[in-house]
Design brief:
Blueprint: H1 12-35, H2 45-69, E1 77-80, H3 81-90, H4 94-97, E2 100-104, E3 110-113, H5 115-131, E4 137-144, E5 147-154, H6 164-178, E6 182-186, E7 193-200, H7 201-208
Parallel strand pairs: 2-4
Antiparallel strand pairs: 1-3, 4-5, 5-7, 6-7
Length: about 210
Amino acid sequence: MRTTPELPAVDVHPCLTAALRTPLAVLRASLESLSHRFEERDPRRPQLEAALSQVTRIQHNLQTVLEGERATPERPLACTLQEIVKSAVQSLVPQQRGRCLAAIEAGDTRLCVDGPLLARTLTRLVEAGLDQCEGSALLRTRRSGPHATFTLLLQRFQASPGSLEALIEELARRDIARLSGQFERRSSREHEAIFEISFPLAVASEEAA
């Protein structure tokens, strides 16, 4: 009986980076440069901006897959609640950015966490939720007693096994745990998914010191 030899294990991270991540970055930079040459009323501009948004989303999805395969090292730094939320919203493509409402209370409260990683987590959850509905998302942050809390309200968030949405939710749970935070998902009559992420301020202050 003829047997098929087993292939050696391959690290897909550098393969995907070389084959997709770098070319996508070059393509995005080229589209952004081209967009600056068009006037606001140029009829070609909407098509170009739509193409740029699609490239950006592909980059975000690829980054999700890469981080699912290999967690990025943590880089804690002091950042404010406002900085984290603004970074998360700003990373959305323009078509979704206008549908994400941000409510910031005690925005100058500081945390010592990997701010970019936390912002990416919030961006992914918002993107996945807005892809599944035509409504809006609400991202709220506040200081509640000894905790800093981020709450995301989405009208829809279905994550079937094996889907990108399921990977996004699993990554959120994993990465928030790595950052010594708490991650919870619940629902209400108005919202299919309510994600709540919290960090104890006492721990954050000790790490910052």
